[in-house]
Structures are given as C-alpha cells and as structure tokens.
C-alpha cells in the first residue's frame, strides 16, 4: 500500500479539536447517567465521583506525570499533541455542562451513545498521532520494554477499575458502563487499523 501524505498542521489542529469536542460530549453523556468507563478517562470519572471535583480538572491532573514518559518513549510531536488533546478535553468538559443539557432516558442509551461519540473522537485523535495519555502510554512502554501486550495491560487496568467502581456505584450502572466501554473499544478496533492508515 502506498503511504499517503502526512497531515498538515491545520489538519492536525482541526482533527484534535474535533476529537476533543466529541470525547468531552461523550463524557458528559456518560456522567449524566452516572456511568464510568475504562482507561485514564475512566479513572478520572471515578475520582470525580468520589471527590466531587470536576472531571476536567481531575483528567488534566492525572495525565501530568505521564508526559515525561511519552516524551522519552514516543517523541516530542506525539507528546505535544497528546498534551493538547488532554488540555482541550479538560477545558471543554469544564464549560460544556453549562452549554448542553443531557438527560438520557436509560443508562443503556447513555452507554451506547457514549461509546459511539467518544469512539469517533478517539479515532480522530489517534489518526492525528496523539492519544489521551495515561494508561495507554504505560501500556505501550511495557510492551516495548518487556514484551507485555499493550491490549492485555489496558484490559487488566480496566478490570481493576471496574472492580473498584463496584464499590462506589450501583452494580447495574457498572454493568451498563461495560456496555459503553465495549461499544467504544469495538469502534476503535474496527476502524483504526495501522495496516490501512500508513504514513498519515
């Protein structure tokens, strides 16, 4: 397959902004139904529930320690784009609650909508060579250094996170949360393939 031309700075910018808006909107739907998700965003949601701090503040703070590892293992460009993505999602999350009212009819609806919307946002962020930091960076580093499969590392983290969520949330909400995480992961797994998207 012939590699396509790399994205321009403008294309990167609009892709990261689009991805951040979609992810922040997805989290708004998620938290509006009292659900949780996996990875670093899920940890931030759970901490926000427990402490009362806003998701945006917690998400931004949790990611700070991971940027040094990202710079060392994945390079400056990836780290800067990841920082921008996280900062955008954090900032948008702080204001979107006052701009958009969300009242899902059922947790299942919220779970599926979250998975679809946040999945689209993540695809945009990944396609422009960035991430949401945190667990994904650690998983990649462990894979490179010790041969641990990144997907399994992330799955182990998510299982631990949902186990903790059972101590904080209604078990029914945790089960619906698993549906949302499954939809999101399916969207990313099906649509984000490195063998189809090379050199962009």
UniProtKB/TrEMBL annotation:
Gene Ontology, cellular component aspect: plasma membrane
Write the lineage as a comma-separated list: Bacteria, Pseudomonadati, Pseudomonadota, Alphaproteobacteria, Rhodobacterales
**UniProt protein name:** Putative 5xTM membrane YitT family protein
List membrane-spanning regions.
Answer: 16-37, 43-66, 78-96, 108-126, 146-167, 173-190
Q: Which UniProt keywords apply?
A: Cell membrane, Membrane, Transmembrane, Transmembrane helix
Report the locations given in the UniProt record.
Cell membrane
Q: What is its main location?
A: membrane
InterPro entries in alphabetical order: UPF0750_membrane, YitT
What kind of membrane protein is this, topologically? Multi-pass membrane protein
